Amino acid sequence: MKPKIYATLPISADVEKYLSEYCELRKWTGEDRISRNLLLEELKDVDGLLTSGIRIDEDLLNNAPKLKVVSNVSVGFNNFNVEAMKKFNVIGTNTPYVLDETVADLTFALMLASARRIAELDRLVKDGNWNPTKDDQLFFGIDVHSSTLGIIGMGRIGEAVARRAKFGFDMDVLYYNRNRKPGAEEKYGAEYCDLDSLLKRSDFIVMLTPLTPETEHLIGEREFKLMRNSAFFINVSRGKTVDEQALIRALENKEIYGAGLDVFQKEPVEKDNPLIKMPNVVTVPHIGSATKKTRDAMMMRAAQNIVSVLTGKGALDSVY
Ligand code: DGY
């Protein structure tokens, strides 16, 4: 008998065909995210769960007595309660590698858009407000090329950003990470720094660290005060790596110049969040990996992870 799996997100015909060879597949087809109660009901007899962002905790695991693997279609896995999953002998997997370059592209898009005020000036043109003015300084931005980039979290995506910075934009690259990355130092001239020095010296500060108990609110009021008044803060990791209220105050008090945000404390971002009203903040709806090619590759990798575990070969990308 084939193992049973449940998918909480839409899957392409290719992936469905692949999964169906090895598993009996059921999937959520509703427009909104599946409700918790329905998910718990669906999990009663399944061996594998293919999902993204759904909280995997003791309560869920207690309701899924046959569950052996949860395959996340994302590189981040902060939705996993790792201790609980270990206790219940459930393997957790993610999708590294296939999204590195796409997330690095988005990181640069946010740097360029915030420094050159692309969203703000796009709105100005489309609103018919491109009036001749003696003062064309009104449209001035800040150069990205030849500036200093500080990367917090030098994993694979960090290295892909460093490569663009060094060879595409002639930037000096600083980084802060749990461990030194001699490869990145050699290839991109990246300089290892303590966090405070990185914050003081960087024109662009890019958050790429995974969200863990150690990195939650890694950047708060004290850290924003160390940044240059001209600095741009870019977050493509998780909203909670930053104290969002401190970020709002830093922008309001002009302690930093601008920000580019893919992620927020609460997603979807709340309508009254001051960040979405600020012209010097570029916001996008958590789209780091959102290209068709990359999302297809992530979905296939996630499917391969689930099949690999359920056919006894072990996970390709186990997170613990
Ligand atoms: C991930 O996969 O964790 C990223 O947030 C992609 O955007």
Can you walk through the features of this model?
A seven-stranded parallel sheet has the order 8-7-6-9-10-11-12, with helices on both faces. Helix 1 runs parallel beside helix 12 (292-310) and helix 5 crosses helix 7 (156-169). With 320 residues, the protein is of the alpha/beta class. The longest helix has 19 residues, at 292-310. It folds into two domains: 4-98 and 292-310, NAD(P)-binding Rossmann-like Domain (Rossmann fold, 3-Layer(aba) Sandwich), CATH 3.40.50; 100-283, 3-Layer(aba) Sandwich (Rossmann fold), CATH 3.40.50.720. It has helices at residues 13-22, 36-42, 58-62, 82-87, 100-115, 118-126, 156-169, 182-188, 195-201, 221-226, 244-252, 292-310; strands spanning 4-7, 24-27, 48-51, 69-72, 91-93, 148-152, 172-176, 191-192, 204-207, 232-235, 258-261, 281-283. Strand 6, helix 7 and strand 7 (172-176) form a beta-alpha-beta unit. The chain starts with a strand and ends in a 10-residue tail after the last helix. The chain has twelve helices and twelve strands. The mean pLDDT is 97. (2R)-2,3-dihydroxypropanoic acid binds next to loops.
Topology:
Blueprint (H helix, E strand, L loop, with lengths): L3 E4 L5 H10 L1 E4 L8 H7 L5 E4 L6 H5 L6 E4 L9 H6 L3 E3 L6 H16 L2 H9 L21 E5 L3 H14 L2 E5 L5 H7 L2 E2 L2 H7 L2 E4 L13 H6 L5 E4 L8 H9 L5 E4 L19 E3 L8 H19 L10
Parallel strand pairs: 1-2, 1-3, 3-4, 4-5, 6-7, 6-9, 7-8, 9-10, 10-11, 11-12
Helix pairs in contact: 1-12, 5-7
The chain binds (2R)-2,3-dihydroxypropanoic acid.
